[in-house]
Design brief:
The protein is an alpha+beta fold. The protein is built from eight helices and 25 strands. The strands form five sheets. Strands 7, 8, 9, 11, 12, 13, 15 and 16 form an eight-stranded antiparallel β-sheet that branches. It starts with 6 loop residues before the first helix and ends in a 22-residue tail after the last strand.
Length: about 450
């Protein structure tokens, strides 16, 4: 740590170092049906000694009842009865485990095409995606689909796990050909980092321990890579964003005029004295105090939860966003985005929805659906009129009130949103604001507004 740093910068750097020592990685697994995702996850949990004795006993009992001599480690994640009966993964299974080097939150996502929405859900907050490929089949359509979803969601790290190497005699040329094909395709989508690892999840080769059967491979095991891959970003490199979650007004004899704004810092660093703009109103003030868990501090950073006090008594409520006055996002009521539709009921032009962005919820109308993306070959079906469950496409929305949206490629937190059914609160669609590798349509005719939703 250099002596020219201010005390605030030194404190922030020390906090980053402490966080790195006990860092947490959120990652998701994906792959085609029967590529061995659940077996890989089970092997990872078993060999890292993250399985309780009663869990392992239950798996051994279930395996014996199915006529299997060795425990089926896939049963550690395939928890639904239908999953066990069919031998497939249907729902997103979250698992939590830790090693001395790092804590992990793992999302085991389904491989079937009809469960693409489940992968989107599991990978939306992931910092790494493990895409499995069966060494016998190579890169297939579903592999490309999962690589495209990872690219759309801006997952910063992708691991290609070429599984079942034991069934191809641990042949290096087989692995090399698959790795080259996948890397070329994923790189063309803009995936920033791709690491290929040959494994056998069933036998345990290169999952937790290095394989004696593949001495030609000199890279890390899956767990070694998960423990050492860089996580998080330097918060000082991102503009600060603070969605207000709650306004604190004690109005007591001790604090008669106190007004604090509580929430979680979505990105960046906030300091006492910073000039901030309140969006969407555009009013300005300065930070006079930062309360972090009852302690007054001079600096705070994402993702800390804090309470801010401002120099001016402004009309601020839940859903407002505080940002540095010199780096405030532009507010808009016209939103263009890439979305994945999650609900069984189709999303159609003219639909009235609620748009939830950070802590703010506003009415919106679907003005246009310019295209639907075919993930297999990245082609565009123009003007589909609707998006069915699992479809990914471009939408144009008009909101009733301005939103302070960042582009998703600049901020996954403040560039994402949900579309919600106003009648029952059901989540319909997950959205990513701004451009992707989808091409927005031009000159689309605006949808007709019904009375009461005319913005």
């Amino acid at each position: 740590m250099t002596s020219d740093l201010t005390s605030e910068e030194q404190a922030a750097a020390a906090a980053v170092e402490r966080s790195a020592a006990t860092s947490q990685l959120r990652f998701a697994t994906a792959g085609s049906v029967d590529d061995g995702k659940s077996t890989l996850v089970g092997r990872l949990l078993h060999d890292s000694k993250s399985v309780l004795a009663d869990q392992l006993e239950a798996v051994e009992h279930a395996s014996r009842s199915r006529g299997q001599e060795a425990p089926d480690l896939a049963l550690l994640t395939d928890g639904l009865r239908a999953e066990r009966e069919q031998g497939i993964t249907i729902d997103v299974a979250y698992r939590y485990f830790a090693t001395p080097k790092r804590r992990f939150i793992l999302a085991d996502t389904p491989g079937h095409v009809q469960y693409t929405r489940n992968m989107v859900t599991g990978a939306s907050t992931a910092e790494l995606a493990v895409v499995l490929v069966d060494a016998r089949n190579g890169v297939v359509e579903q592999t490309r689909r999962h690589a495209a979803v990872a690219a759309l969601l801006r997952v910063p790290h992708v691991v290609l796990a070429v599984n079942k190497m034991d069934l191809v005699d641990y042949a290096e040329p087989v692995f090399a050909a698959i790795a080259e094909e996948f890397t070329t395709y994923a790189a063309s989508l803009g995936v920033p980092e791709i690491t290929a690892i040959p494994i056998s999840a069933l036998a345990g080769d290169n999952v937790v321990t290095a394989s004696a059967n593949m001495d030609w491979y000199g890279g890390p095991t899956v767990l070694e890579h998960l423990e050492t891959v860089p996580v998080g970003t330097d918060p000082s490199q991102d503009p600060a964003r603070f969605p207000v979650q709650y306004v604190i007004r004690p109005q007591t004899a001790e604090h008669p005029d106190y007004r604090g704004y509580a929430g979680q810092i979505a990105s960046g660093v906030l300091r006492v004295g910073d000039a901030v703009t309140v969006l969407p109103s555009g009013r300005t003030s300065a930070i006079t105090g930062i309360d972090a868990l009852g302690a007054m501090v001079d600096v705070a950073w994402a993702p800390q939860s804090v309470t801010l006090t401002l120099a001016d008594d402004l009309d601020i409520s839940r859903g407002d966003l505080l940002a540095p006055s010199d780096h405030a996002p532009r507010t808009t009521r016209d939103v263009e985005a890439t979305v994945c539709h999650l609900h069984d009921r189709p999303l159609r032009v003219g639909d009235r929805v609620l748009l939830k962005h950070t802590t703010r919820t506003v009415k919106a109308i679907i003005k246009d659906i310019p295209s639907r993306l075919t993930l297999a070959d990245l082609s565009h079906h123009p003007a589909p009129g609707e998006l069915a469950a699992n479809d990914i496409g471009r939408v144009v929305l008009r909101t009733s009130e301005p939103l302070a949206l960042d582009a998703y490629d600049a901020s996954r937190r403040t560039g994402s949103f949900l579309l919600v059914d106003p009648a029952d609160g059901t989540t319909l669609t997950a959205g990513m604001a701004g451009d992707s590798f989808a091409t927005p349509a031009k000159g689309a005719e605006a949808a007709r507004d019904d009375e009461g939703w005319d913005f």
